[in-house]
Write a structure and sequence with these properties.
Oligomer: single chain
Number of strands: 16
CATH topology of the largest domain: BirA Bifunctional Protein, domain 2
Number of domains: 2
Strand order of the largest sheet: 1-5-6-11-10-9-7-8
Helix content: 25-40%
Bound molecules: histidyl-adenosine monophosphate
Radius of gyration: 28 Å
Distance between the termini: 58 Å
CATH superfamily of the largest domain: Bira Bifunctional Protein, Domain 2
Shape: elongated
CATH class of the largest domain: Alpha Beta
């Protein structure tokens, strides 16, 4: 008796994309690429894994993503790497390594890996579309990056989303604020959840992210960073919000918005959707990270960007009842049915594909009836039939797969004229 192998499944928190969903993905990525180019960004591809230090920099308040959720592994050369949990740090590492001229405007589409508790809209491998701009702290860049996200969401059909904005200040004004927040938390530590008892002192800002009612009550009664911003940071934020409103983009100040990474300075923002009754309603987020290049060993260089989850965008689009499909032409033009037994199809499909027609064929030398079934299912417009009779006569029969009385409408053309004849039929219809 043989031991049957239980079929493998995709790992928990991951998923396969196929069928109609893959057309939606294609459309989403193609639209983003189009927008990125329209805004002057170029595609950047960095490795899927990096030295763990690119993400886990061991400086100050570290995010849970870097400390608890990373997929870290040691390779055969004893190097410690991490699968990228996000797209920003690798792009900054690449910027330092290659010193491109600034401002450097990069866009990307990438998987990101986080060992999270999987739930709807929260995965262990998700995918992000994002941009980063390095080399300028002009608030006009903040406006441009946020406007790109906003215009892109509109273009993919989303209507029910809001932009939340905040400032994380800079090293100086945030430092003073964190001290005040820590004092406040110390005075109310007994009211915080158990989860924060050991961490509030080390990571006080993380408390602002906590959704627990007691923690929210404590932090709401405490100091807010927005009231501690230095004059420069305040002016920067004012420029950004004024620039956005000049474009007709409303932003809502959210003083509790701290986001999940330690690298943010000044502008931080998140786009949330109101189409989902879900905790996972952030469709994109980002901000400025003026100190990150230095933390990664580079010269001080300002930066800003955002990332948007493809799965989230698709979830929201479905909730809003919008589908877009692929922007690429995915329909087949032709399906070749070959019953010669001589594999006439191989040459024929090559010629048709080289002439630009989307063409498929059957395999395994199946019967005419079986091949016809596949042709009907394929969605192709025309079937091209080559049987022994056609082959002998140097002909191909063209059959309209949408016609009910194909016996009357089908016709034979000379094998040498097939590309021309097919082109005529397709341009006429
Ligand atoms: P993030 O907020 O962690 O930021 O992720 C960006 C977006 O990715 C989120 O708004 C959400 O749409 C999606 N996302 C995040 N985690 C998951 C998950 N587990 N499952 C499904 N979707 C998820 C960043 O990653 C920063 N690198 C963004 C940035 C770019 N900041 C500056 N530049």
């Amino acid at each position: 008796m043989s031991d049957a192998v239980t079929p493998f499944q995709a790992p928990i928190g991951t998923h396969d994309v196929l069928g109609a969903a893959s057309a939606e993905w294609e459309g989403m990525i193609a639209t983003f690429a189009q927008f990125a180019y329209r805004f002057g960004f170029a595609l950047v591809i960095t490795p899927m894994f990096e030295d763990v230090g690119v993400f886990h920099r061991g400086i100050g308040e570290e995010s849970e993503i870097a400390t608890k959720e990373m997929y870290v592994f040691t390779d055969r050369g004893n190097r410690t790497h991490a699968l990228r949990p996000e797209g920003t740090a690798p792009v900054v590492r690449a910027f330092i390594q290659h010193s491109p001229t600034t401002p450097w405007k990069a866009w990307y589409v990438t998987p990101a890996f986080r060992y999270e508790r999987p739930q709807k809209g929260r995965y262990r491998q998700h995918h992000q579309l994002g941009v980063e701009v390095l080399g300028t702290d002009d608030p006009a860049v903040d406006v441009e990056v946020i406007a790109l996200a906003h215009r892109f969401y509109e273009a993919v059909g989303l209507t029910k989303f809001r932009l939340l904005i905040n400032s994380m200040g800079d090293a100086v004004c945030r430092g003073a604020y964190v001290e005040r927040l820590r004092d406040h938390l110390a005075a109310h530590a007994d009211q915080l959840t158990d989860e924060h008892q050991l961490t509030w002192s080390k990571n006080p800002l993380r408390l602002l992210d906590c959704k627990d009612a007691n923690c929210v009550a404590v932090t709401n009664a405490g100091p807010m960073l927005i009231d501690f911003l230095c004059a420069d940071c305040r002016e920067h934020l004012n420029h950004v919000t004024a620039g956005l409103s000049s474009l007709g983009i409303a932003s809502h100040l959210d003083p509790r918005l701290v986001r999940g990474f330690d690298y943010y300075t000044r502008t931080t923002f998140e786009f949330v959707s109101d189409a989902l009754e879900s905790a996972q309603n952030a469709i994109g987020g980002g901000g400025r990270y003026d100190g990150l290049a230095e933390q990664l060993g580079g010269k001080p260089t300002s930066g800003i960007g955002f990332g948007s989850g493809i799965e989230r965008l698709l979830m929201v689009r479905e909730a809003e009842g919008v589908t877009m499909g692929s922007l690429l032409k995915r329909d087949l033009d032709l399906f070749v049915i070959d019953t010669t037994g001589l594999d006439a199809a191989t040459l024929l499909v090559d010629e048709l594909r080289r002439a630009g027609f989307a063409t498929d064929r059957a395999f395994d030398q199946r019967s005419m009836k079986a091949q016809m079934k596949v042709a009907d299912k394929s969605g192709a417009r025309l079937a091209l039939l080559v049987g022994p009779r056609e082959f002998e006569a140097g002909e191909v029969t063209i059959r309209d797969l949408r016609s009910d009385n194909f016996e009357q409408t089908q016709r034979s053309v000379a094998r040498d004229d097939v590309v021309f004849a097919v082109g005529q039929v397709l341009t006429k219809s």
